[in-house]
Amino acid sequence: MIREYVYGLAAVSPQDGKFSALVLPCVDAQARSVFLAQTSADFPDEYCLMLLDGAGWYRAAALRVPSTLRLLSLPPYSPELNPVEHLWDHLRKN
Fold first, then answer.
1. Is 87 exposed, middle or buried (0-12, 13-18, 19+ CB in 10 A)?
2. What is the model's pTM?
3. What are phi and psi of 10, to 5 degrees?
4. Fewer C-beta neighbours within 10 Å, C or N terminus of the chain?
């Protein structure tokens, strides 16, 4: 059996439920940079604070962060603090 994976990346505004999402074939600094650029474009008139898990690609030197985004890492082992986790729960159940 051969398995192939795709990765769903999402950002959700807890204030109004608006979201940005991409499905990509990999997750590395370059893919995350594409996602951050897309998220910035989806929220053009807003300055966004993005809460992140502890994945290493958010700390990579090659990561390009748009000027309208600020990245803030959550404490380890605290997925309940990340608003997008509720989106994944909903997708799994439905």
1. middle
2. 0.79
3. -145, 150
4. N
